[in-house]
Amino acid sequence: MTAITLDLVNHQGSLNVNRYLDVIKLLWSAAIAAELEYRANFVLATLTSLGNLAGSLFGLSLFYYGTGYTFEGWRWQEALIVLGVFTVLQGFSSTFLSPNLNRIVTYVQQGTLDFVLLKPINSQFWLSTHTLSPWGFPDILFGSIIIGYAGSLLGLTIGDYLLSAIPLIFGFISLYSLWFMLGATSIWFVKIYNVTEVLRGLLEAGRYPMVAYPIAYRFFFTFVVPVAFLTTVPAETMLGRVQVGWVIGAGILALVLFMIATAFWRFALRFYTSASS
C-alpha cells in the first residue's frame, strides 16, 4: 500500500479530525479488501466463534442447570447478558486491538518502527488504527444476538441498551490502553507475546459476573486488572441496577489509563534506538 500523506494541522493549528477519519477510511478499506481475498478464513472464524460460544454457554449452563449453583443476584438471563458483553468485547479485541497492537513488537524487531515515526501522523494513532481484521466480526454479531435474546426475555428497552453503551465504551478504552502499554514495553523487552497472552487469559474472567469469584479475586479483577469494568459494570447498567458511582469510576479509569498510555508511549520512545543509527 502506498504511503498516505496527512496534514494533521490546519492553518489555525488545531487538529484536523476529518483528515484522521479519511486516513482510517482508506486504511480499513484496504485491510478489509486484503483480508477478504481469503474468504475461507471468514468461514473458519465464524465456526470457531460458534464453537467458543457454545462452550461458554455449556459451561454457564452447568452452574444453573447442572450443579444447582447460581451466581448470587444473577438469574440465567442476566448471566447471559454478561456473556454477551464479553463476547462482543472479545470480537472488538480480535478486530481492532490484536491486529494493530500485537504488531508493535514486529516493528521494533525489524526496525520498521522508524518508518512509522517518520510518517506525518501521530505514531500512537497510526499504530492503533492502521489495520483491522474482519475475523472478529462473528464474535461481535453473536455476542449482540445473545444480548438481544436475553434482553427480550428480561423486557429490556432500547434505552437500556443505549445506556449500557456508555460504560461499554469506557471498557473498550481501558482495554485498549492496557494493551497498548504492554505493546510499548517491546521497546525494552522485544519478546512480550507471552505478556499479552497473560492479559488475554486474565480477561477470560469477564465471561462470568464478578460474584462468581471469591472476594479476593473480585478485588483483583476490579482494582488491579479492571475486568469488572469491562463486562459486569456494562451488564449491570443495561439491567438498570448499577450505581452511578461505578459508571463514573469506569469513565475516570478509562481517561486515566488512556492518558497514562499516551504518556508512557512518549516516554518509551526516548529509549528507542533507530535501526539506522
Q: Overall mean pLDDT score?
A: 85
- Total of DSSP H or I helical runs spanning 4+ residues: 12
Amino-to-carboxy terminus distance: 26 Å
Which spans have pLDDT < 50 for at least 5 consecutive residues?
1-14
Radius of gyration: 20 Å
Form type = globular
Q: Per DSSP, what share of the residues sits in E-state strands of 2 or more residues?
A: under 5%
The percent of residues in helical segments reads: 55-70%
Short description:
This protein has 277 residues and is an all-alpha fold.
Structure report:
There is one protein chain. With 277 residues, the chain is an all-alpha fold. It has one domain. Helices cover 69% and strands 0% of the residues. The protein is built from 12 helices and no strands. It has helices at 17-35, 39-66, 76-101, 104-110, 113-118, 123-129, 137-154, 158-184, 193-203, 215-224, 232-238, 244-269. Helix 8 packs antiparallel against helix 11.
Keywords:
single chain, 277 residues, mainly alpha, 12 helices, globular, disordered N terminus
Please write out the topology.
Blueprint: H1 17-35, H2 39-66, H3 76-101, H4 104-110, H5 113-118, H6 123-129, H7 137-154, H8 158-184, H9 193-203, H10 215-224, H11 232-238, H12 244-269
